Amino acid sequence: MSNAALPKDGSCDLRLRCATTVEGLAVTIDIAEGRVAALRPPDEPLPPAQDEIDLRGALVLPGLSDSHVHLDKCMLGLAWRPHRAQGSVRAIIADEKAFRRAERVSLAEQGAEALLDRMLHSGTTSLRTHVDIDDVTQLDHLAQILELRARWSDRMQIQIVAFPQSGILSCAPVAGYLDDAMRMGADLVGGLDPVGIDGDRDGPLDIVFTLAERHGRGIDIHLHDGGELGLDEIDAIVMRTKASGLGGLVTISHAFALAEADDLRLGRIAEALCEAGVTLVSSVPGGRRCPPIPRLRELGVAVCFGTDNVRDCWNPSTVISMVDRTTLAAYRFDLRSDADLTALLDPITTVPARVAGLGPGALAPGARADLIVFDATCGPQVIVERQEPVLVLVKGTVAIDRRGRAAG
Ligand SMILES: [Zn+2]
Questions:
Q1: Cα(380) to centroid of ligand 1, in Å?
Q2: Which of 34, 202, 230, 289 to pair with 317, CA 20 to 30 A apart?
Q3: What's the pTM value of the predicted model, to 2 decimals?
Q4: Band (406; pLDDT cuts 50, 70, 90)
Q5: How far apart are CA 68 and CA 160, in angstroms?
Q6: pLDDT tens by residue, 312-362
Q7: How far is the CA of 374 from the centre of ligand 1 (A)?
Q8: Which protein residues have their CB within 5 A of the ion that is ligand 1?
Q9: Which CATH superfamily includes the segment(s) 64-356?
Q10: Of the CATH numbers 3.40.50.880, 3.60.20.10, 2.30.40.10, 3.10.290.10, which one belongs to the domain with range 14-62+361-407?
């Protein structure tokens, strides 16, 4: 137990009594000025608290992080639209552009606000969203998502990736827009299948890494390209990360090609990813494209989870909760032991906090008091029961409270 962040007079704004940590410890949690001020053993004498909640042994986790979402694509605010585009990434891009030209409501109304609300209710308190930048949207989506981020700043920590959804070389104005996007307030430079979309492995990567270095920002590249082509692109991103000194700031999202690598090749790539400081993000997709997440964990690779598409032109899926995402991973990889299930919390808590500054990551003195409470005794129970939190605190303030409903 530590009281490192406790205010000098020992007081706190909110005290959570009788909490259980993911390690199984019974603790009293003191919160002051939006942060965890102290974790105390249950029998420790307590200084005054302005307010108290008795959790009656409930499990407390740090707020969950969604490392890959598309707030601007979501259509939760609109009537059901059947999935139309078949096959290739290019076909879906064309379908999405047709949708955008026809739709005239704001992104908040289209679904971004509904999605944020559902995410918060499911325990997500931090996220990284990609925002489309192409010849149709130009910088309009970015401007709208920046406004939404400001409006939600007390409820959700949001990182923004300037995402070239139609490619960079094959969509002429995009390189300039990406540069502008960094000045407007985007946090990271995005990328998309250099060969699959732009037909050139090095040209788009040159532009992405140059922009990141120029603006001192990180990179997050969508990589759907499979097979040898995709593996070669991963090698190229690793080499550029080392050469540019951007280690720790580069993410590859999806990396479907890793599902096709044999164990020897996977081991070599994993070593290179670790050495270069490149993170992977997976939505734990169905089909044959999911990278071998437990094996990558064994090999030491930093893996985060994200929802990716929610009711949009890419996928009608409405799996929003990060707890549900861990359930998908448990099912997909047939994980059953408490140790294996508990490890699935890392890609939505500790890893995104460490590699991306997303979320508090852990329940610890000094950490931002984004805390979620479950009617459970341990993490595995939350995952296999696909639980929703009964209480969500953001910066020490109660944002969602289902306790009355649970008791009734
Ligand atoms: Zn995506």
A1: 28
A2: 230
A3: 0.96
A4: very low
A5: 10
A6: 999 999 999 999 999 999 999 999 999 999 999 999 999 999 999 999 999
A7: 29
A8: 308
A9: Metal-dependent hydrolases (3.20.20.140)
A10: 2.30.40.10
